Amino acid sequence: xxxxxxxxxxxxxxxxxxxxxxxxxxxxxxxxxxxxxxxxxxxxxxxxxxxxxxxxxxxxxxxxxxxxxxxxxxxxxxxxxxxxxxxxxxxxxxxxxxxxxxxxxxxxxxxxxxxxxxxxxxxxxxxxxxxxxxxxxxxxxxxxxxxxxxxxxxxxxxxxxxxxxxxxxxxxxxxxxxxxxxxxxxxxxxxxxxxxxxxxxxxxxxxxxxxxxxxxxxxxxxxxxxxxxxxxxxxxxxxxxxxxxxxxxxxxxxxxxxxxxxxxxxxxxxxxxxxxxxxxxxxxxxxxxxxxxxxxxxxxxxxxxxxxxxxxxxxxxxxxxxxxxxxxxxxxxxxxxxxxxxxxxxxxxxxxxxxxxxxxxxxxxxxxxxxxxxx
Length: 375
Prior knowledge:
mainly beta, Neuraminidase, four-stranded antiparallel sheet, Glc/Sorbosone_DH, 6-blade_b-propeller_TolB-like, signal, Glucose/arabinose dehydrogenase
């Protein structure tokens, strides 16, 4: 009996120490007591895709349908002057990001679906502009994916700045799985890096290849809809949609290939396989993957003293299962999963504001603020 107990203990230790990357074996218990609650601060939004906080504490919100909202003093004001947004499938007006030195230069960055250029349909575009009253001015177009396509899926697209002031953004594979992601001469299925003015950094990984899209920073991605700067390492993290299974979290590294669709932990929606392998030399493994898929969107690292028990975590919204997921990290491994606010709605974005509180964009509900339940 003692020998059996010892063997059981060894087996359990091995299970928990070796399975940190596999979601089916990571602890996912919902705590008995939820320590935080949500309060709606911006009501009655349809699909709020992105949000940013201005220095005066007001908020800019993008609605996928193409509307930019300024929310101040409990009032919504529609901002005019944006270029025409091509709304199709998953595409529309998407992310928004302030320049790190916004107070001095006033630049605001947007990702959106654009029909500009040759061919019918559209592709993901990046622009910047300034806010003058209720109008955006000084519009500058920084990047436009090509070719246009009428396909409605996999536009990306998140925006993030690193600590050196580079602008990163994602464009999904645009539904062209077997062509775009592995080809650096084509847009789609990539993470890109630009200077804030839209110029190409000389140290981008493919600037010595005249045929390559020189804004590319990494490739082999499917559809990244979450992006965040790690507060300690300064690395760009992304989450991206897999097919049926195989959603991923990846740490973006210069010039690396993240494998889509050559390697994947997912299968076709029909249940058939499109690849037999989950790893290959020269292709990066995800930091974490989900099976089944949760349809991840939005990503934030809580660093505020308002959430002391969430230190060392990353938060990811789930569109499919309508909850916010907290992943506890240790040495760049996920050691615990926690589901928060189940049933509230499709979590499209999550962001820590300058006031130290976390705000989430929930489809059909609005923007909610996450506060301690004793607040």
